From TrEMBL:
<keyword id="KW-0325">Glycoprotein</keyword>
<feature type="transmembrane region" description="Helical">
    <location>
        <begin position="86"/>
        <end position="105"/>
    </location>
</feature>
<dbReference type="InterPro" id="IPR010291">
    <property type="entry name" value="Ion_channel_UNC-93"/>
</dbReference>
<feature type="transmembrane region" description="Helical">
    <location>
        <begin position="180"/>
        <end position="198"/>
    </location>
</feature>
<dbReference type="Pfam" id="PF05978">
    <property type="entry name" value="UNC-93"/>
</dbReference>
<keyword id="KW-0732">Signal</keyword>
<keyword id="KW-0472">Membrane</keyword>
<dbReference type="InterPro" id="IPR051951">
    <property type="entry name" value="UNC-93_regulatory"/>
</dbReference>
<feature type="transmembrane region" description="Helical">
    <location>
        <begin position="204"/>
        <end position="223"/>
    </location>
</feature>
<dbReference type="InterPro" id="IPR036259">
    <property type="entry name" value="MFS_trans_sf"/>
</dbReference>
<dbReference type="GO" id="GO:0016020">
    <property type="term" value="C:membrane"/>
</dbReference>
<protein>
    <recommendedName>
        <fullName>Protein unc-93 homolog A</fullName>
    </recommendedName>
</protein>
<feature type="signal peptide">
    <location>
        <begin position="1"/>
        <end position="21"/>
    </location>
</feature>
<keyword id="KW-1133">Transmembrane helix</keyword>
<feature type="transmembrane region" description="Helical">
    <location>
        <begin position="117"/>
        <end position="135"/>
    </location>
</feature>
<comment type="similarity">
    <text>Belongs to the unc-93 family.</text>
</comment>
<feature type="transmembrane region" description="Helical">
    <location>
        <begin position="141"/>
        <end position="159"/>
    </location>
</feature>
């Protein structure tokens, strides 16, 4: 694990293209660089943005669903029915599908749009949750134990790539504060999922997961609505007549 971390740093240093900027601008940015505390407080000030607040359930769901698969599915389903020796293979299946789908969805999102991919992940995750509620694991159903993490990896690839992309598009001018919030709320989802992991029964955790997913899609839909409304306002011609009293008074 440590070697992988070192390799990652070396790959970034050696192969990542350097961002070129004007020297004078670079010096000005250095002088205007915000302090640690101003950056820290900006993370919480960013919550004044309605869109950020609406994205909290979706961001937390990312932590919930990853926490369930790694902490609960492996324990309640895999270990109890097949044995602990299969946990590694199941997680390999999840990670492999996740990696391939992340690469695929990152490419096709420019053609399909993020809404279709979010819908795909929602339907897939919902189907998995309902199936897990109804399924009675048996050692003879070996393939089924790998189908669930594969589908979960497909969904997680959408949550990871598209949620990150959504944050980058919505909060282009405040990326540091936005992505700090992203990690904050996703990590909180992890904490909660692992926190109640040993306290609740599996079916209750699945109902919680389904509830958070439904809430996430409702609030995400609200964000898309606000963005569509805002974009429509920007696209209106400047000379278009307005019916508001203020606009009539201005023209007079």
């Amino acid at each position: 694990f440590a070697a992988s971390g070192v390799l990652a740093v070396l790959l970034v240093i050696i192969f990542l293209d350097q961002i070129k900027s004007d020297q004078a601008e670079t010096e000005r940015e250095k002088l205007e660089a915000p302090s640690f505390w101003s950056t820290f407080l900006a993370t919480f000030r960013h919550l004044k943005d309605k869109r950020q607040c609406l994205l909290i359930p979706l961001t937390m769901y990312s932590g919930f669903e990853q926490g369930f698969l790694s902490g609960d599915y492996t324990k309640v389903y895999v270990t109890c029915a097949l044995g602990i020796q299969y946990v590694g293979y199941v997680m390999i299946c999840f990670a492999a599908v996740n990696s391939l789908c992340s690469l695929l969805f990152g490419k096709i999102s420019q053609f399909t749009g993020r809404k279709l991919l979010f819908a795909l992940a929602t339907v897939t995750n919902t189907a998995c949750i309902i199936a897990l509620l109804l399924w009675k694991p048996h050692p003879k159903q070996l393939a089924v134990f790998f189908v669930f993490p594969a589908l979960w990896g497909l969904s997680d690839a959408v949550w990871q790539t598209q949620t990150n992309g959504l944050y980058g598009i919505l909060f282009e001018k405040h990326k540091e504060a936005a992505f700090a919030n992203y990690r904050l709320w996703e990590s909180l989802g992890f904490v909660i999922a692992f926190g109640y992991s040993t306290k609740l029964q599996a079916y209750i955790k699945l109902y919680i997961l389904l509830s958070v997913l439904v809430l996430s899609m409702v609030t995400y839909g609200a964000v898309e609505y606000l963005e569509a409304k805002s974009s429509l306002g920007h696209l209106l011609p400047q000379g278009e007549w307005s019916t508001s009293p203020h606009s009539q008074e201005t023209r007079m």
